[in-house]
Design goal:
Shape of chain A: globular
Strand content of chain A: 35-45%
Order of helices and strands of chain A: HEEEEEEEEEEEHEEEEHE
Number of helices of chain A: 3
Oligomer: heterodimer
Helix content of chain A: 10-25%
Largest interface: A-B, 54 and 59 residues
Radius of gyration of chain A: 24 Å
Number of strands of chain A: 16
Number of helices of chain B: 4
Number of strands of chain B: 49
Distance between the termini of chain B: 42 Å
Distance between the termini of chain A: 56 Å
Number of domains of chain A: 1
CATH superfamily of the largest domain in chain B: TonB-dependent receptor, beta-barrel domain
CATH topology of the largest domain in chain B: Maltoporin, Chain A
Radius of gyration of chain B: 28 Å
CATH architecture of the largest domain in chain B: Beta Barrel
Structural class of chain A: mainly beta
Largest sheet of chain B: 22 strands, antiparallel, barrel
Structural class of chain B: mainly beta
Helix content of chain B: under 10%
CATH class of the largest domain in chain B: Mainly Beta
Largest sheet of chain A: 9 strands, mixed
Chain lengths: 265, 862
């Protein structure tokens, strides 16, 4: 075999060696959250599901992290883990406070990491800087202020929600002492979404509609904290109907949170 | 060059001496045992005397050939005459031979060796192609033991009397072994010799002399190297059959990896040669020979006592003692070393000690026996992998660690015995061995990711993913073979029948340790196994013409498993509500609290049949073409065994076609080159799992590629270089297999010569060795590729009388590089929220290291 033939054979063989891919792609993206597109940045007026006219003057949500997962658990599946069983596609872990009365996307401090894999479910982690499994977390997750009226009476209100020891649930089944871990209280999951495939330089936007927080709140049942001036408020515990309703709405996987992907310009 | 048609069917039996010297495992018996006889580099076939063709006689000639210190034939005497015509034919041929000069105390010296020729009468007209003019050397003699086992040479030629006792060349006779049959272009036999001057971390690094091999190590100094070979991620040997003196040291049943092979117990200075077969083409290859096999042969060329002290960067210290009794052969030696290092960066400290001893004795006139023993122990820490984003954002340094508890320890001891004998035309070999080993390994690839809170557990945060793996056991084995040869069709034909028997008692546990306290909180695995491997093989060497030979056969193995799982159940769907086993790892309850024993036994067995063959055409003008096919298997991890379910082997089908060349470049430079194309298919490949901390069974894969290698050897230099390109893809998706390099280039260069001055009347020998490794951008999961790896290591030594001083530099350019890179999910708590998406991780390669060595030699006869 001539030397030239050997060289050509080598080149022929090496040609395909350095090409090809393992499939997929890893990308970084920008994460942002905002109130609904129709808010003006000032007070938000709306009528709740129970017929109260609400003027919301402050609504601040602390998002600890955002995740996208490639699989949406089938209906009826009882996951005992705080994280979804599928592969996580995207994450934004830097966390920030979001003004829900501002429609402008509010950027998270750090870039997020993702793989270019189709995501079917989202997660919003409502936590402070500590461990998601630690009972102690005094980070205010939700702060709301405003006034509600039903035509006959009005209820100036304020409220703050934390998710810590105040949300621990008692163990009812001794064989399952961790059936209700605190992390489950903090993770809103799974949030169904239109399929998202992250792309490099894109933006993951989560819009949070504060109107959904008050859909089932009976403002007439709010606890009164002062009479002059009259002030009402939500209790940071499962104490009364309005507080429970607000907390449940905060953790509802449907309606409150809307994920979308904005391609890079 | 003679056309084949002009060649006579002349002779070919020859060269017991030279053949044995040529072949790596050769054993030397000399009047002065510190001699290394000349080795044949190139030969020219002798022609059957045309004038005698009509008589049809077999003729024997024995020549006494003097090879000078340059490797040239200086003088030829006829010791045993076969008649004037045969004598002339033999002399004429031998005058054209070239040799690697013999060594006296490590220095080239003139020697005289006996060279026997046997002329077989032509079976066809004298102008027909002939074969038997080839000397008896490894590739044509057809000798061989299991996996390259050396069998004794055919005769022990007597010493040749010197004509001038004072000035005459040293007479040597050789008793020893001819090499195993060659298995085509994938069969790489490496005589280390001067290439030992190229810096290498350990004996495993010698593998890089074979084409296409990349070594990485994320586990620390005492952890076996991860081997990539021709597109295989063989992990720590799971896909390569490793043997030392033909005794296997893959650890069956090792929980970290079934077939784990740690070569750190081998003292690199005692490795004389290495044979790598890059594929399952030899019927002697057994379990784990999926990507191929590697056999180390030990010996100590320089007799006497030697000590070597090395100190240098990172607090590295190493003391080596070697002893080769001058009155014994080079296969008789003892060596011990002890070393320690603080390691580069954090958490890479290590310490080790190893001892090896071997004695080789004669067994009658044509046999030998060997007894080998070694012991090894190490303890070390490991930096493991770190996240790329943590490094880029300054949270950790390049050489840092994210879990300083990683590391491990290993201890092993083994004894092996070997008997080789010859009766008539049959050679026998028998080997037995016992190995005891234990290893502990602590690794954390994922940080705080896997300990999710389960409903049946007490409330807890992520407690940490540190794996605490402990595994060990005892291996008892025996292997033997008998090879018979005869002459047919005018050529030598041979057949070898052999067996292999191995039993392993293995155990392993794997716990997860709590980060804060290092207390085990979860037992994941607790398995003890009794594993058996009984194999039979037949290997046939057939030669039909001078240029056509076929070698191959079949091997059959029966693998048996008796696996006792001491942790058979870790979860139930419906736990007892009144007496739940909260936090218990290995349950003694079934659903609803019904009692069960926590353990369970499974047994199974399966046979595997593996045909293998190599067809060789040539040599034509020093070049031979070869095509090989072979099937190999890797037995599965005992953890996968299910009662009475046939053992699912990983099976590889390998194809190889290539050309090899062995000749001279000018008068003084031997050239060996090979070029081959290969394709392999594995039905169940091993793929890295960061959660398991090891490779796990995956899908089928296919590899295609090319390998080229070149070695140039001269009187003052030795140059070895190889290039491998390969494409490895999954069968179902046709996507690349991650982590395996598709381009690997390696070069080893050595210059050595007497310096032009004397010190106190004695010469000074200088040597320079350089090793260069280039690894292309490896494919990573999610469509990414790693960085390139380019490292340069160099050493320089000066030898004067009994003293040798040297300086070694590793990573001479001080290039900051990533030895291993991975894409997967981990959470090392470097961010506010858990990190669950796959990101880049890497293990840092070593920075520039400078080491000084001082060696003293004494006690040998000069």
């Amino acid at each position: 075999m001539s030397r030239g033939a050997i060289i050509w054979a080598a080149l022929l063989a090496s040609a395909p060696a350095c090409v090809g891919t393992t499939g997929g792609e890893r990308v970084t993206f920008t994460a942002a959250a905002a109130g609904p597109a129709d808010v003006s940045g000032h007070a938000l007026s709306f009528t709740s599901g129970r017929g109260f006219h609400v003027v919301l003057t402050r609504a601040t949500l602390h998002i600890g992290a955002l995740y996208l997962n490639q699989s949406l658990p089938v209906s009826g599946a009882q996951s005992t883990d705080c994280v979804l069983p599928g592969t996580y596609v995207a994450e934004e872990t830097s966390g920030r406070d979001i003004d829900l009365l501002d429609a402008t996307p509010q950027i998270f401090p750090d870039y997020g990491d993702a793989t270019a894999t189709l995501a079917l479910a989202g997660e919003v982690w409502l936590k402070g800087p500590g461990s998601v499994s630690s009972p102690s977390d005094a980070t205010p997750i939700l702060i709301v202020e405003g006034q509600a009226d039903d035509g006959n009476a009005s209820w100036p209100f304020a409220g703050q929600i934390t998710i810590g020891k105040n949300r621990l649930r008692p163990v009812s089944d001794p064989s399952q002492p961790s059936a209700h871990p605190i992390c489950k209280e903090r993770i809103v999951s799974p949030i169904a979404l239109s399929p998202i495939r992250p792309t490099a330089g894109g933006t993951l936007l989560v819009r949070v509609d504060p109107r959904q927080l008050f859909v089932n709140v009976d403002f007439a049942s709010l606890k009164q904290f002062s009479t002059d001036p009259p002030r009402y408020g939500f209790v940071d515990a499962d104490a009364d109907q309005p507080s429970i309703s607000l907390y449940q709405a905060l953790r509802a996987a449907g309606g409150l949170y809307a994920f979308s992907w904005l391609e890079a310009p | 060059m003679k056309p084949p048609s002009a060649r006579l069917r002349a002779a070919a039996r020859a060269l017991t001496v030279a053949a044995a010297a040529l072949c790596a495992p050769a054993t030397v018996r000399a009047e002065t045992p510190r001699l290394v006889p000349p080795a044949v580099l190139t030969h020219v076939d002798a022609e059957y005397p045309p004038s005698l063709a009509a008589q049809g006689k077999h003729l024997d000639v024995v020549l006494a050939v003097t090879v000078d210190a340059e490797g040239h034939v200086a003088k030829i005497d006829v010791m045993t005459s076969g008649g004037p015509e045969a004598d002339l034919a033999a002399v004429a041929a031998t005058r054209q031979w070239t040799f690697k000069p013999g060594l006296r105390n490590g220095t080239p010296a003139a020697m005289r060796i006996p060279v026997p020729f046997h002329f077989s009468p032509p079976t066809r007209p004298v102008d027909a192609p002939s074969d038997d003019a080839a000397p008896l050397q490894g590739g044509t003699a057809g000798a061989g033991g299991s996996s390259g086992a050396p069998l004794p040479s055919e005769s022990a030629a007597p010493p040749v009397p010197s004509t001038k006792p004072e000035e005459a060349p040293q007479d040597v006779s050789v008793f020893g072994a001819v090499d195993a049959p060659t298995m085509g272009a994938a069969d790489v036999k490496i005589d280390i010799r001067e290439l030992a001057r190229v810096p290498r971390e350990n004996a495993a690094a010698l593998l890089k002399l074979a084409p296409g091999i990349l070594l990485t190590n994320e586990g620390g100094e005492g952890h076996a190297e991860q081997v990539f070979l021709r597109g295989f991620d063989a992990r720590e040997g799971q896909d390569i059959e490793f043997t030392l003196g033909n005794i296997p040291f893959n650890e069956a049943g090792n929980l970290h990896g079934n077939g784990y092979a740690d070569a750190h117990f081998i003292i690199p200075e005692l490795v004389q040669s290495l044979r790598v077969i890059e594929g399952p083409f030899d019927p002697r290859q057994g379990n784990f020979a999926v990507a191929g096999s590697a056999n180390y042969e030990l010996g100590l060329e320089r007799r006497g006592f030697a000590s070597k002290l090395a100190v240098g960067s990172f607090g590295t210290e190493r003391l080596l003692l070697l002893w080769g009794p001058p009155e014994e052969r080079e296969r008789t030696f003892a060596g011990a070393e002890i070393g320690s290092t603080s390691g580069y960066g954090r958490n890479r400290d290590a310490r080790h000690a190893t001892a090896m001893a071997q004695y080789e004795g004669r067994l009658g006139e044509k046999g030998l026996w060997r007894l080998t023993a070694n012991a090894y122990s190490t303890q070390y820490h490991s930096a493991g992998v770190i996240r790329q984003d943590d490094y880029l954002q300054g949270r950790v340094g390049f050489y840092d660690t994210t879990d300083a508890r990683q590391g491990g320890s290993t201890a092993r001891a083994s004894v092996a015995g070997e008997i080789i004998s010859r009766t008539g035309d049959t050679t026998y070999v028998e080997r037995v061995w016992v190995t005891v080993k234990q290893m502990r390994l602590l690794e954390n690839f994922t940080g705080f990711l896997l300990d999710t809170e389960q409903a049946t557990q007490s409330p807890h945060d992520q407690r940490g993913d540190l794996l605490d793996l402990s595994t060990g056991g005892v291996t008892i084995g025996s292997k033997g073979a008998g090879r018979w040869h005869t002459s047919a069709l005018g050529f030598r034909q041979d057949i070898e029948l052999g067996y292999f028997a191995r039993g392993d008692v293995a155990y392993g546990t794997q716990d997860r340790l709590e980060a804060a306290t290092s207390v085990p909180y979860k037992r994941q695995t607790d398995v003890s196994s009794v594993l058996g491997d009984l194999g039979l093989y037949a290997d046939v060497g057939l030669r039909a013409t001078k240029w056509l030979s076929l070698r191959g056969g079949v091997r059959a193995d029966l693998f048996t498993f008796d696996v006792h799982n001491n942790c058979a159940t870790s979860a139930v769907a419906h736990p007892s509500k009144t007496n739940p086993q909260t936090d218990v790892s290995c349950l003694s309850q079934q659903d609803f609290g019904r009692y069960r024993e926590p353990d369970q036994r499974s047994t199974t067995a399966s046979p595997a049949l593996m045909p293998r063959a190599t067809l060789t055409l040539g040599p034509f003008a020093h070049a031979s073409l070869a095509a090989s096919y072979g099937r190999g298997v890797r037995s599965i991890d005992p953890a996968y065994v299910t009662q009475d379910v046939a053992t699912p082997f990983a099976t590889v089908d390998a194809y190889e076609g290539g050309v090899t060349y062995a000749g001279m470049l000018g008068d003084h430079v031997a050239i060996n080159a090979r070029s081959s194309f290969f394709a392999t298919h594995v039905d169940r490949d091993l793929l890295f799992s960061e959660t398991a901390g090891r490779n796990v069974l995956g899908d089928g894969t296919t590899r295609t590629g090319w390998v080229g290698a070149l070695r140039l050897t001269g009187s003052f230099f030795d140059q070895s270089a190889n290039v491998t390109v390969v494409k490895s893809t999954f069968d179902d998706t046709h996507l690349l297999v991650p982590y395996v390099p598709d381009v690997v280039v390696r070069s080893d260069s050595v210059l050595h010569h007497d310096l032009p001055f004397l010190i106190l009347g004695s010469k000074v020998v200088g040597a320079l060795g350089v090793g260069v490794t280039y690894v292309g951008r490896r494919p990573l999961p999610y469509g990414e590729r790693s960085d390139e790896v380019l490292t340069v290591d160099a050493s320089s030594t000066l030898e004067w009388r009994a003293v040798e001083i040297g300086v070694t530099a590793t990573n001479l350019t001080n290039r900051q590089y990533r030895l291993g890179e991975y894409n997967y999910a981990s959470d090392v708590r470097s961010q506010q929220a858990p990190t669950l998406v796959p990101v880049r991780h890497f293990t840092a390669g070593a920075p520039l290291g400078i080491f000084a060595t001082l060696a003293l030699r004494f006690g040998g006869k000069s």
